[in-house]
Amino acid sequence: MASIKPLSDRVLVKPDLAEEKTSSGIIIPDTAKEKPQRGTIVAVGEGRYENGNKIAMALKEGDKVLYGKYAGTELTIDGDELLIMRESDILGILS
């Protein structure tokens, strides 16, 4: 994958794959699949500055996160679908 380093308080997220089947085994067609709202942090920026003070990022590479349905900007890098968004668009870290 091409190297990309997010700036400021932005993060690069690789979304999880959309569900192929329901829990009961029904196959979901492509037109009915919902956008995933979970993913893995691939890269993080250095943090943001506020009133001259640097505020460090709370996220790190490898974190599994939950984000808003329409959060971020979609990118395709070397065939990989990725999202770039602000740290504040992340709703939580999954454990």
TrEMBL record:
What keyword terms does UniProt attach to this protein? Chaperone, Cytoplasm
Q: Which GO terms describe its cellular component?
A: cytoplasm
Does the record bear Chaperone in its keywords?
A: yes
Record-linked InterPro entries: Chaperonin_GroES, Chaperonin_GroES_sf, Chaprnonin_Cpn10_CS, GroES-like_sf
Q: Which Pfam families match?
A: Cpn10
Alphabetized NCBIfam families for the sequence:
PRK00364.2-2 (NF001531), PRK00364.2-4 (NF001533), PRK00364.2-5 (NF001534)
Q: Which family does it belong to?
A: Belongs to the GroES chaperonin family.
Q: Which HAMAP family match?
A: CH10
Q: Sorted alphabetically, which PANTHER family does this protein's record hold? A: 10 KDA HEAT SHOCK PROTEIN (PTHR10772), CO-CHAPERONIN GROES (PTHR10772:SF58)
Subunit details: Heptamer of 7 subunits arranged in a ring. Interacts with the chaperonin GroEL.
Query: What is this protein's name?
Result: Co-chaperonin GroES
Question: From what organism does this protein derive?
Answer: Cyclonatronum proteinivorum
Q: What is the lineage of its organism?
A: Bacteria, Pseudomonadati, Balneolota, Balneolia, Balneolales
User: Which gene name belongs to this protein?
Assistant: groES
